Amino acid sequence: MRKLTLILLLLVAFNVTNAQQTTPQRYNFSLNEAIEHALQYNYTAINAGRDIEISRQKKWETTANGLPQINGTVDYQNAFKLQSNIIDFGGTPVLLTFGTFNTMDSKLSLSQLIFDGSYIVALQASKAYLEFFENAKKKTDSEIRAMVTNSYGSVLLAEESIKVLERNQTVLEKNYLDANQIYKNGLGEEESVEQISITLASVKSNLKNVKRLREVSLNMLKINLGIEINDELKLSENLDTLSKNNLQSVLQSNEFNVTNSIDYQISSSLVTQKKLLLKLEKSKALPSLGANVNFGYNTFGNTFSMFESNQKWFNYSNVGVRLNVPIFSSFGRNAKTQQAKIEFQKAQTELTETEQMLKLQFQKAKSDFDFSIEEYETAKSNLNLAERIEKKQQIKFKEGLSTSFELSEAQRQLYSNQQNYLQSMVDVINNRAALEKITNKN
Quick check: 30 and 238 in contact, CB under 8 A? Predict the structure, then answer.
């Protein structure tokens, strides 16, 4: 009985633990909170951080090549067949066997690089290598900010569209019931009922589609945030407030410092790397100098007795210096140097092109942002007009002063302006994010 009770308790504990592990997490984010979460947990951001750590380890690996190196070796050889030779002793040939069947050597070596131009350049290159990945991480973070902003705005757009379509559906359903009742009473035409029915069906279809799009957009945002798709996510901001907060200009003036752009910094880092590669090829024509110290013991025997107490070990030690002077390579080094020089020139040209392209992208991004603000104001004004027109048509239709076709046209115009207004708010948010990405302002 005790064993059965213990088993049941273990099963209950396991099920509770398993349920806790599979329980979806709950999140509630503003846009800024979502961005901060993504910068830490986005999958691409995590790997970009790992690339920086790899480059740091690579830098230390390069540095260690110029520091003292200590190596210990143990060699054992078993000569199962010894080398023999015939020696002439006073006209009498004698067969002699050389060596012993067992040989063991234990050695400790210390080596130190004294001078090598390639090593000095490699140290500089490792620093540039690390800087490149740090800039790459900044670019990744910049792209994540823009990506999360776009995804966040898409979800808000879908949510606001659902609210608008549901309101439109409610109004149309009431219009349909009123028109149908008027038709049954013999005071209206069947065409009026059919016209409203067509508009209502279209709104219902759009509503279903937007609800599906909302789920897709929400899941895309979850992936960008680095959370599970099954987790619960709520957005604490609404589209209207968020768009109004983004209406102000990103810059105090139209001046754009291209050197602040991450793309420019990455391109500049590539120029530095190519320059160091050119320097590396040139350094290969310089002499290199190194030193080493060896200390060891060896022993010999016809039987394997190396670890016996009476086995004799013989000490040896030496110190050496090695100077390597490149003299003539049949112009091979010169060819490599010229290749590196051309690659350096290409990188400089690409940097100039990047600078010009960034200036153009800034002009376009600034123009798009300014245009989105103008479109927002226009869409807001047009929506107010469309709402007034639709209300007037509602009154006229109820009083029999306008047809269902005129009412439907007013409603379609209203629905179009509703979507234009919602889209204009999203465009303000996204275009500001694009401008911030280029100017590197967060």
Answer: no
How far CA 44 is from CA of 69, 117, 128, 216, in Å, comes to 37, 37, 22, 20
Q: Which residues pair with 87 in a beta bridge?
A: 94
Query: Cα 101 from chain centroid?
Result: 61
Q: CA angle, corner 132, sides to 126 and 135, nearest 5?
A: 145
Which of 224, 182, 256, 317 lies closest to 35 in space, CA to CA?
A: 224
pLDDT tens figures, 414-427: 999 999 999 999 99
Poorest-pLDDT segment among 52-61, 93-102, 142-151: 93-102
Q: CA 416 to CA 210: how far, in whole Å?
A: 15
Find out whether 100 and 302 touch, Cβ atoms under 8 Å: yes
- 10 Å CB burial of residue 219 (0-12, 13-18, 19+) is middle
Q: How confident is the model at residue 253 (pLDDT cuts 50, 70, 90)?
A: low
Q: What's the rounded Cα separation, in Å, for the pair 261 and 265? A: 6
Can you spell out the DSSP letters for 37-60? HHHHH-HHHHHHHHHHHHHHHHHH
Listed by start position, the domains of the chain span: 24-439
pLDDT tens digits for 9-19? 555 554 544 54
* 249 or 204, higher pLDDT: 204
CATH code for the part of the protein at 24-439: 1.20.1600.10
Distance CA 194, CA 253 (A): 56
* Cα–Cα distance, 354 to 420 (Å, whole number): 35
Q: What is the DSSP letter of 354?
A: H
In whole angstroms, give the CA distance from residue 389 to residue 277: 70
Q: What secondary structure does DSSP assign to 390-412, as a single string? A: HHHHHHHHHTTSS-HHHHHHHHH
